[in-house]
Amino acid sequence: MPMNIGVAGMILLVILGLLLFGPSKLPQLGRAIGTTLSEFKRGAKGLVESEEKTENNKDVL
């Protein structure tokens, strides 16, 4: 479980999410969060790769 929330905490978060957003909006919200996380990971990977290329170019010179 992420951040040691536990089963009871996860159930509470799901119930809170249902109360705030309703059952019809939760799938849309989940997809939006998933897309955002994947784009963030892709961007971070691109930054790391460009930094490695820069370091390799400095080593050659």
TrEMBL record:
<dbReference type="Pfam" id="PF02416">
    <property type="entry name" value="TatA_B_E"/>
</dbReference>
<keyword id="KW-0812">Transmembrane</keyword>
<keyword id="KW-0472">Membrane</keyword>
<keyword id="KW-0811">Translocation</keyword>
<keyword id="KW-0653">Protein transport</keyword>
<protein>
    <submittedName>
        <fullName>Twin-arginine translocase TatA/TatE family subunit</fullName>
    </submittedName>
</protein>
<keyword id="KW-0813">Transport</keyword>
<keyword id="KW-1133">Transmembrane helix</keyword>
<dbReference type="InterPro" id="IPR003369">
    <property type="entry name" value="TatA/B/E"/>
</dbReference>
